[in-house]
Specification:
Elements (H helix, E strand, L loop, with lengths): L8 H22 L18 H6 L7 H27 L1
Bound molecules: zinc ion.
């Protein structure tokens, strides 16, 4: 997995720098998309601590999330399938 250019010291330093860059990027990718909210963005109900730690960056309370998921699934699913079909035909 070591590339062809890990031979001299100067290059090694560069590689180490790019590895920590890479780690930084991986960490950023894994990091939540923003902070968890203490209160729902929709209805301002307090979001339970357990939910906040289970879902990093959570923005909605359980009720609002379920509502949104449900609406998304029924509406989005049918629409998406329909538009795909009409595109294919
Ligand atoms: Zn809510």
């Amino acid at each position: 997995m070591a590339g062809g250019w890990s031979r001299d010291g100067a290059v090694n330093e560069q590689i180490e720098a790019s590895i920590s860059d890479e780690l930084e990027r991986m960490r950023a990718r894994r990091a939540p998309v923003g902070e968890s909210l203490t209160h729902c963005a929709e209805c301002e109900e307090p979001i339970p601590e357990a939910r906040r730690s289970a879902i990093p960056g959570v923005k909605l309370c359980i009720d609002c999330q379920q509502e949104r998921d449900g609406a998304f699934r029924t509406r989005g699913g049918i629409n998406r399938r329909g538009s795909k079909d009409s595109q294919l035909k």
